[in-house]
């Protein structure tokens, strides 16, 4: 695809113009490339690490990260997806369990051992962040129970924090299926017109006075992925639990109740979380149907 006419087809002056254009274009391209390389580490919140917290014990599914999904451990499937995210400078698995660590090292993952006392994923991420030698501006907590997570969603969560300096937390939501409306394991959220979170609930929000699902309302289902500003992640575990957080049993409410801003990106994603052993067969059937190896 020639940008300028070939010199042989031009007059003498035309060829000079062509050369000038060529040089100008080349110089501009070089300048852009240099600026890109130079600027990237200096941009706002430019360094991001993805952390996959994985613990052995689980309320409904012991050893869940090692469960085989079409022959591959679930944690490996998640990790492989996360490795495809172009916004991450580094990816680690954070675990308290030697078997999980060994398995992860076996397929090439970087592993950080965290204590058994971590109460939940964000605490584990916080401990892992402190054990990482390098500084990162953004930490993305990717739950290991969504083995079909799209790398684009991870990139979107990172970008949301880079573009919204007033937010300390970012997450993703997708269209809620009507059959999940009253499932308390499916967390719903509502956002303002700039995409900042207003509230999360296990109940259906907003609530229609008919008491039924309004087929015309675009309800949002919260997905288990969160991006933190790393400075915020360090203080997050120390913030005392808050009333709404405790009542809904939703950790992210603590962020909102303390007055911090959270950005929610809307994505197209069919959530297939693995919470219980019977979910493995469901996800395998889906992968076969979609020809995912
Ligand atoms: C509630 O849901 C119905 C459909 O089920 C819809 O027509 C109505 O506009 C919704 N909102 C209110 C305030 O009724
Ligand atoms: C999870 O961790 C947060 C932050 O570390 C903590 O405040 C919260 O109480 C924990 N939630 C549960 C359910 O353990």
From TrEMBL:
Major place of residence: membrane
Transmembrane segments: 18-38
Enzyme Commission identifier(s): 2.7.7.38
GO function term, MF aspect, one: 3-deoxy-manno-octulosonate cytidylyltransferase activity
Metabolic or biological pathway: Nucleotide-sugar biosynthesis; CMP-3-deoxy-D-manno-octulosonate biosynthesis; CMP-3-deoxy-D-manno-octulosonate from 3-deoxy-D-manno-octulosonate and CTP: step 1/1
Subcellular location(s) of the protein: Membrane
Catalytic activity annotation: 3-deoxy-alpha-D-manno-oct-2-ulosonate + CTP = CMP-3-deoxy-beta-D-manno-octulosonate + diphosphate
Record key words, sorted: Membrane, Nucleotidyltransferase, Transferase, Transmembrane, Transmembrane helix
Cited Pfam families: CTP_transf_3
GO biological process, alphabetically ordered: CMP-keto-3-deoxy-D-manno-octulosonic acid biosynthetic process
GO CC aspect terms: membrane; mitochondrion
NCBIfam families tied to this protein: kdsB, PRK05450.1-3, PRK05450.1-5, PRK13368.1
Family recorded in the similarity comment: Belongs to the KdsB family.
PANTHER family: 3-DEOXY-MANNO-OCTULOSONATE CYTIDYLYLTRANSFERASE (PTHR42866), 3-DEOXY-MANNO-OCTULOSONATE CYTIDYLYLTRANSFERASE, MITOCHONDRIAL (PTHR42866:SF2)
Protein name per the record: 3-deoxy-manno-octulosonate cytidylyltransferase
Source organism of the structure: Triticum aestivum (Wheat)
